Amino acid sequence: VDLAAEYFYARMYDRSERQLLNLLELNSQFVRAHVVLGKVHAQKNEHSKAIEELRKAVELSGQDPVSVSALAHALAVAGEPKEAETLLDSLHECSRYRYISACHVAEVYIGLGRKDVAYNWLDRAHETRDVELVWLKINPVYDSLRNESRFQDLTRSVNPILL
User: Helix 31-43 and helix 47-61: axis angle, to 10°?
Assistant: First the structure.
């Protein structure tokens, strides 16, 4: 799955998908493979496939926040903001008793087109040294922000050695 994730970050979505499908043939219960495959489908604008994979991940993981946030993002970019917001509310509720990555919350807001709120969460991620920031410069979910000065300032300030 790490190789498939590398393909995902390199925007080699078809290679990532092939790798993940082979992996899921061996172990159909591998949650992370479903999550990455769902993200691949979302980037390929295959929204129904993305949502299907991510629903499997949420079910198999027992509502793990990583899976839930990925599903919420996929729903948002698929034009299903109401369900995405419901999942986002559940993540906020869950954060009262469990760690939720601020980057994952930001990704949902990006999907919803709420960039200012996403930046607030990215700033929080930076303040708390969220480990997910190591993917900031290469994660395709952030592509819609890349040309903005605020995002460029953030990427310059992120030093993976200090996380």
Answer: 160
